[in-house]
From TrEMBL:
<comment type="function">
    <text>Phosphorolytic 3'-5' exoribonuclease that plays an important role in tRNA 3'-end maturation. Removes nucleotide residues following the 3'-CCA terminus of tRNAs; can also add nucleotides to the ends of RNA molecules by using nucleoside diphosphates as substrates, but this may not be physiologically important. Probably plays a role in initiation of 16S rRNA degradation (leading to ribosome degradation) during starvation.</text>
</comment>
<keyword id="KW-0808">Transferase</keyword>
<dbReference type="GO" id="GO:0008033">
    <property type="term" value="P:tRNA processing"/>
</dbReference>
<dbReference type="InterPro" id="IPR027408">
    <property type="entry name" value="PNPase/RNase_PH_dom_sf"/>
</dbReference>
<dbReference type="InterPro" id="IPR036345">
    <property type="entry name" value="ExoRNase_PH_dom2_sf"/>
</dbReference>
<feature type="domain" description="Exoribonuclease phosphorolytic">
    <location>
        <begin position="10"/>
        <end position="140"/>
    </location>
</feature>
<keyword id="KW-0820">tRNA-binding</keyword>
<keyword id="KW-0819">tRNA processing</keyword>
<dbReference type="GO" id="GO:0000175">
    <property type="term" value="F:3'-5'-RNA exonuclease activity"/>
</dbReference>
<dbReference type="InterPro" id="IPR001247">
    <property type="entry name" value="ExoRNase_PH_dom1"/>
</dbReference>
<protein>
    <recommendedName>
        <fullName>Ribonuclease PH</fullName>
        <ecNumber>2.7.7.56</ecNumber>
    </recommendedName>
</protein>
<feature type="binding site">
    <location>
        <position position="86"/>
    </location>
    <ligand>
        <name>phosphate</name>
    </ligand>
</feature>
<keyword id="KW-0694">RNA-binding</keyword>
<dbReference type="GO" id="GO:0016075">
    <property type="term" value="P:rRNA catabolic process"/>
</dbReference>
<comment type="subunit">
    <text>Homohexameric ring arranged as a trimer of dimers.</text>
</comment>
<dbReference type="GO" id="GO:0031125">
    <property type="term" value="P:rRNA 3'-end processing"/>
</dbReference>
<keyword id="KW-0698">rRNA processing</keyword>
Length: 238
């Protein structure tokens, strides 16, 4: 029934390759099916003005899609002179999600910026960015701890994200683009490894959904996040 032939509760193949860039304190390439995202983490000894002097750290994110990450070339946002609304919304989501798994007191007064660049898109780019972004962040924090710059581990709980939706009347896990473009209901679920919800984005796209269907999607999301967290921990050796 699914275009890919997957079972309703089956994820796309997931792989996370770490140490893919030379200069970043933490980096990985995450592949969820045909969606590929390069994630890098940069440590800076500064924080935004609104928390300067508070002793709190900060985690933020930037997101972008390369011109040929999709079937036709898109214009670089830099050439347009501003970011689009979708880009701003997604990078704020990534930052909020990653901060949910960080003890900002333990991090100390420094900033870590996680850059997520979509190399190839086939649905679920924001979810892949959050999942891979956590890996890059984990690796960067590991370097801080190894250097003795951070005493207690500020990473409190892995954070991962997965899409779920109702496609052809059935709840399905981890939508690829053909499903996403036709789904009656589309949702993104961000959770911690301990199954605490960080954010849920659900919308009807031409079809409404029931409370029971929402619960089914949440159950699928928990299964997907469990699998993603296992991949994160394997990639980071945690």
């Amino acid at each position: 029934m699914r275009p890919s032939g997957r079972d309703l509760s089956e994820m796309r193949p997931v792989s996370i390759e770490t140490g893919v860039t030379k200069h970043a304190e933490g980096s990985c390439m995450i592949r969820m099916g045909d969606t590929h995202v390069l994630c890098t983490a940069t440590i800076e000894d500064r924080v935004p003005p609104f928390i300067k002097g508070s002793g709190l750290g900060w985690v933020t994110a930037e997101y972008g899609m390369l011109p040929r990450s999709t079937t036709s070339r898109m214009r670089r946002e830099a050439s347009a002179g501003k970011q689009g609304g979708r880009t701003v919304e997604i990078q704020r989501l990534i930052g909020r999600s990653l901060r949910a798994g960080v003890d900002r007191v333990a991090l100390g007064e420094r900033q870590i910026t996680v850059d997520c660049d979509v190399i190839q898109a086939d649905g679920g780019t924001r979810c892949a960015s959050i999942t891979g972004g956590w890996v890059a962040l984990r690796l960067a924090v590991g370097k801080l701890m190894k250097a003795g710059d951070v005493i207690s581990d500020p990473m409190t709980d892995p954070v991962a994200a997965v899409s779920c939706g109702i496609y052809a009347g059935q709840p399905v896990l981890d939508l690829d683009y053909p499903e996403d473009s036709e789904a009656g209901v589309d949702g993104n679920f961000i959770m911690t490894a301990s199954k605490r919800l960080v954010e849920v984005q659900m919308s009807a796209e031409g079809s409404t959904y029931s409370r029971d269907q929402m619960n089914q999607l949440l159950d699928l999301a928990e299964k997907g996040v469990d699998e993603l967290v296992a991949a994160q921990l394997a990639a980071t050796g945690a």
